[in-house]
C-alpha cells in the first residue's frame, strides 16, 4: 500500500510539472516559435557544413590518388598526404597493401559516401 501511494505521488508530481511546463510554453509560444526557428536554421547550417566537409575530403582524396599515380614527387603531394594522413592512417593499420596497392583511399571514399547518405537522411 505504501509503495502504491509513493508511485501515485510521483505520478502526480510528474503530471503537475508537465502542466506547469505546458502553461509556460503556452504563455511564451511566440518566443518559442522564434527560438525553434533559429535552432532549425542552425541545424540546417550544421548539416550543410558537414556535407561540404565530406565533399572536400572526397575531392582531396581523389586528387591525392591521381597525383600519387601520375607524379608522386609533385611539390604539393606531401601537403595532400599530410591532410589525409589522419584519415588514412587508421585504415592503413587495419588494411595492409594488397599486391603493392594501398586500398585505404578507396575505403575512405566508401566511408565518406556512407556518411553522406546518413547525413542526407537526417
Number of strands: 0
Count the domains.
Answer: 1
- Which structural class do you get from the secondary structure elements? mainly alpha
For the sheet with most strands, the description reads: none
- Provide the low-confidence segments as ranges: none
Order of helices and strands: HHHH
Oligomer status: single chain
What is the CA-CA span between the terminal residues?
47 Å
Average pLDDT, all residues = 83
Proportion of helical residues:
over 70%
Put simply, the count of helices is: 4
Question: Which percent range describes the beta-strand content?
Answer: under 5%
Q: Report the radius of gyration as a whole number of Å.
A: 26 Å
Which shape, going by the Cα principal axes?
Answer: elongated
Q: How would you describe this structure to a colleague?
A:
The chain has one domain (2-121). The chain contains 4 helices and no strands. The longest helix is centred in the middle third of the chain and has 42 residues, at 29-70. The mean pLDDT is 83. The chain is elongated. 85% of the residues lie in helices and 0% in strands.
Quick recap:
The chain has 122 residues and is an all-alpha fold.
List keywords for this structure.
4 helices
Amino acid at each position: 500500500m505504501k509503495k502504491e501511494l509513493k508511485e501515485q505521488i510521483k505520478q502526480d508530481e510528474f503530471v503537475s510539472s508537465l502542466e506547469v511546463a505546458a502553461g509556460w510554453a503556452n504563455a511564451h509560444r511566440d518566443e518559442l516559435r522564434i527560438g525553434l526557428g533559429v535552432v532549425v536554421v542552425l541545424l540546417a547550417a550544421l548539416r550543410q557544413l558537414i556535407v561540404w566537409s565530406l565533399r572536400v575530403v572526397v575531392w582531396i582524396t581523389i586528387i591525392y590518388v591521381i597525383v600519387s599515380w601520375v607524379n608522386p614527387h609533385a611539390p604539393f603531394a606531401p601537403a595532400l598526404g599530410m591532410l589525409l594522413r589522419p584519415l588514412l592512417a587508421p585504415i592503413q593499420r587495419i588494411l595492409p597493401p594488397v599486391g603493392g596497392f594501398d586500398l585505404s583511399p578507396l575505403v575512405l571514399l566508401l566511408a565518406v559516401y556512407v556518411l553522406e547518405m546518413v547525413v542526407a537522411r537526417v
